[in-house]
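Support request, priority: normal
Reporter: lab tech (M.K.)
Component: structure prediction queue

Hi team, I submitted a job for Putative 3-methyladenine DNA glycosylase from Exiguobacterium undae yesterday, and the status page still shows it as pending. I've pasted the exact input below so you can check whether something in the sequence is tripping the parser. The sequence length should be 195 residues. Please let me know if I need to resubmit or if it's stuck on your end.
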Amino acid sequence: MERSFFERSPVDVAPDLLGSVLTVNAVTMRIVEVEAYLGPHDQAAHSYSGRPTKRTAPMFGPAGHIYVYFTYGMHHCLNIVCGEIDQGYAVLLRGAEIISGHDLVAERRFAKSYATLTKAEQKNLVNGPAKLCQAFGLTTEDSGVDLYRDERFRIEAGKAGTIVQTTRIGIPNAGEATAYPWRFYESGSTGVSKK
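Reply from support: The job had stalled in the queue. We restarted it manually and it finished. Here are the results:
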């Protein structure tokens, strides 16, 4: 997958990103749920002001970098920057399916091996943005990293099955942006956070 893939509007990148495979060190996952955030055109975006802050600076950088933010005093969430420099565009990774690194993910999420997880724990390993970020072992310390220059990362194109498009989740106070249909997920995937 070339960097130019991300040098587009996140509304176009998001559905095309479904089915792609992201590797961070020893964990490889297939992306099955995403949300697009369109900078100053989107009241729900962290970059809505159009001006970078210390926290949001990576969103205004080059496409293909990551933006990791800390929320609710306990969770990290992973985004990939899109568009052109200074636009503040990104795609939030919301859900995935684990391809490899199951034991490492289980250790990070539940402090035990994958084989000892309950069915409920297996189901809830990476079906949500904070869970996915924790499974990859990423924090705000990684925010701003270039996917194409950091040897820990590899991203490969993939194919998704039937794609569902809906409004985004958890942004009730974002004005008209609350109703933007910029969440995309693969129908039938166990990695989707909420059907």
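The beta strands are 21-24, 27-38, 66-71, 75-82, 89-100, 153-156, 163-166, 183-186. The chain has four helices and eight strands. Let us know if anything else looks off. Ticket resolved.
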